[in-house]
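Example pasted here:
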Amino acid sequence: MESDHEYCVMNTTPKIHAMIVAAGRGSRFGASIPKQYTLLQGQTLLQHSVARLAESAYIDKCLLVVAADDSTAQTLSFAQPIYYAVGGAERWQSVQAGVEAILNAGANKEDLVVIHDAARPAVPTHDIDAVIQAAMLEPYGAILATPVADTLKQSYLAANMLCNPEYEAASPHKPLNAQPKLANSKSGHNTLHAYAQKTIDRSHIWQAQTPQVFRLEQLQQVLSYVAEHNLAITDEASAFEYLELPIRLVTGSRQNIKLTYPDDAIVLAAILAAQS
């Protein structure tokens, strides 16, 4: 795919298609069920996320991309019409399967697809509309994101320094000459710890969210590039970045957190209660 970043946005209004990726296992969450089926405020995360998309005037149905062995999604009731596709082992493979399903259902390649995480049930409706409207004016797409507010540290791994008599000379640029013997080590093996190496300039750092909205044809092409070159990506915008294709950042809400760890459920429950 080539781009000199000189472009004109097409005059026709594209149709909007919605996709929720719900094929993951959520291993970091540590529950016995996939995290999209965690109950908050009487509904699963997946039901909440579908309901949020349904509140947008741009979206009238939603594709759910689920695991091949998922037996739960089709037992649930949703706030809008649903159809299904089977996902893959990696997120990008699930999105690729979703794109094919949307195109096979009759979508045009110039249409837009709204991709949302099942584990982000608290995204405000006005943010969904804002990122869709922004994507309509872009040649490739737009994503919700928030500027990073926290101080960011780059780390390195090293054995416990206080246990080593030479720790004063230790640094990531001047490694220890001898491995320290850990006083509290029961296994007899040295343990590595994270140490702060430097503070990262956060002035241009954003935290990506979903929904992420792209033109179907371009998304299909960049995902094929990911597959061909065996690239590791954690969101769809990353695929465009590999090809240096501009994706617009739309400032989202800090309420739009993702359920990743058990503590996140406490925060999300409070947010959903406040929003209702």
